[in-house]
Amino acid sequence: MTTFVEVDHVDRVFDLPNGGRYIALKNIELKIKQGEFVSLIGHSGCGKSTLLNIIAGLDRASIGGVTLEGREVRDPSPDRMVVFQNYSLLPWLTVRENIALAVDEVHQDKPKGERRGIIEEHIDMVGLRHAANKRPHELSGGMKQRVAIARALATRPKLLLLDEPFGALDALTRGSLQEQLMKICNEHNVTCVMVTHDVDEALLLSDRVVMLTNGPEAHIGQILEVPIPRPRQRLEVVKHPSYYNLRNEMIYFLNQQKQAKKRQSQRLVTSENSAAKAILEIGFMPLTDAAPLIVAKEKGFFAKYGLENIVLTKANSWQEITKGFVTGKLEAAQMLAGMPLALTLGAGGNPSIPVVNALNLSRNANAITLSKRLYSQGVRNLADLKAVINTTPDQILTLGVVHPAAMQNLLLRYWLAAGGIDPDRDISLRVIPPTEMLAQLEAGYIEGYCAGEPWNYQAVHQDAGFVAATALDIWSGQPKQVLGVSETWAQKHPETHLNLTKALLEACEYCDDLRNRPEILEILSRPEYLNISPAYIRPGFIDPYDRGDGKPPQELTTYNQFYLNKTNYPNRTETLWMLTQLARWSITPFPKNWVEIIERVCRADIFGAAARDLGLLDIGEDNPIHLFDSKTFNPSEPLDYLKSLEIKHPIRIEEIFI
Q1: N or C: which end of the chain has fewer CB within 10 A?
Q2: Spatial distance between the Cα atoms of 601 and 593, rounded to a whole number of angstroms
Q3: Cα angle vertex 604, ends 601, 608, to 5°?
Q4: What is the count of structural domains for the chain?
Q5: 246 located within any domain
């Protein structure tokens, strides 16, 4: 079924009297099918009614827009009727006359007799024949709301919008009206969007429940599919095996948002009088992905934002970066994409160290390098590797990964499992610092590895290995390195954190201008940074990439990606995918409170503030993730996705307190 209503990356920003701005809604993306009933739920102030008004055409999005059947919604129209909580009936008109007011206005082109028939049909539809000649003061609250529903439906709208329609009614009347609404929607295939606070009402009426996070910058935190068949009866719904699990999931989400609101208030108190911190030590690894940090230092982007005393500290391993956060030596560092999650969750039984990511530094530039010994055995791809493993079951191959939470580990495991190779049974994986990978490969201790550059091409250049797959082959656009910042430090120094994000955003843009690459290459090669020959950095950075497989070098223009294609946006969908993979291989449990964890780690609000200050687009796209095996990742149902994966560890689900 095609999309009937599309909410396309909508923001709603309000100007404040003091000259500031309040961002009520941020990057709302929603597609609704014809005949679908969708409920919007969330705490007061999260922007539910604002979103409904934008869909209705009663308000305009600041960014983005809404389409109905492919046509942009710009103004109110009879094809979208709204039922409000307060009935909005004219007190001097009868039930029939209130309905007739709408019918006569919308259907002026129809004969009077046909209009009269529509009015009487809808009086009967809501069961008000006995009260057709009564005025609003003679009606109960439930009867008034039935008039409002009949008036809306009598215009034959394409879309019915309901804003807390039963919120002021007693339980008995509310239940009766809910039953009538369900019957009407089922019989007439009405498409509905409803705002509600009532989780039971949402489950009874909805095909999907859209749960919004707290404002400001409220966004869709989770979408819940309601797999209860129609037509529905209240008692049958309650008895459905999914009912209480769905209900508990909604209540859990709302409770997590309540806790998040408390933490937000505490952050505001903590940071209220915090001055910008001028001195900051930032850890980095000698990888091509460190370019934005190095360029920001060398080209004056840090100094531009008052960060003259930034100290870049080179580490030899990711464990050293982690130790810097544990000891408090480091407050910020270049990190592997999964490290903020792993540190926050306390992976490996370690104490939790909350780390936030407000900026992706790079994408791609990972590769899977295999030994020339495997090459001599005919291995060129994943299927060949599987064949070698099957024919030599007494020999266990060892492959290197740089960190358990690294995208390199998650991608290598995914690649192997997609080819039917269990990465914990059929082979052995060993954590090795990236700077030691090539030496281990040349010594024969490992038969390959997944790492960043320049360590893959260096193996090719020295004829020690060949590249079996690049990040572009497995997941083009995958996040690789991020700026990880201690949550405690970020709360104490919000201005410095914002300035740091802005400086690095500008540096990332500088790094993705190919005209600057020769200069950057020279800087990266210096002893204090990568301390390596420029020849090992050039492929994929400036020159075509030689995979060492006997084929001509490839032009990989997006292999080292620092800014283009919305590289820098900290994407929640990607973060959730990483969370599923960490749980898949028992690196961490899957958090029952995953929405809270992602909101806490993935700080798109800070990125947005920095981007707006620079006049850049302050959102990214939480698009579906496309990996090479074409398996679909549904971010609304991460556990179903995990269960669908054939090769995995037993999945542990735990509430994780931080």
Answers
A1: N
A2: 13
A3: 150
A4: 2
A5: yes
How would DSSP label each residue in 236-298?
A: HHHHSTTHHHHHHHHHHHHHHHHHHHHHHHHHHHHHTTPPPP-EEEEEE-SSGGGHHHHHHHH
Cis preceding-peptide flag for 354 (omega within 30 of 0) = no
Buried-state track 168-191, b at ≥16 Cβ within 10 A, e below 16: ebeeebbbebbebbbebbeeeebb
User: Is residue 620 assigned to a domain?
Assistant: no
My answer on whether 371 and 225 are in the same domain is no
User: 421, 441, 474 — which closes off a domain?
Assistant: 474
Average pLDDT, the chain: 91
Which domain, by its residues, includes 233?
A: 3-79+157-265
Q: For residue 256, is it within any domain?
A: yes
What span, in angstroms and rounded, lies between the C-alpha atoms of 475 and 619? Answer: 21
Q: Is residue 589 part of a domain?
A: no
9-29 burial: b if 16+ Cβ within 10 Å, else e: bbbbbeeeeeeeeebbbbbbb
Q: What is the mean pLDDT of residues 254-271?
A: 72
pLDDT digits (tens, 9 = 90+) for 418-473: 999 999 999 999 999 999 999 999 999 999 999 999 999 999 999 999 999 999 99
CATH number at residue 209: 3.40.50.300
Domain boundary among 209, 235, 265: 265
CA neighbor of 416 nearest in space, from 651, 646, 652? 646
In CATH, what number is assigned to the domain containing residue 396? 3.40.190.10
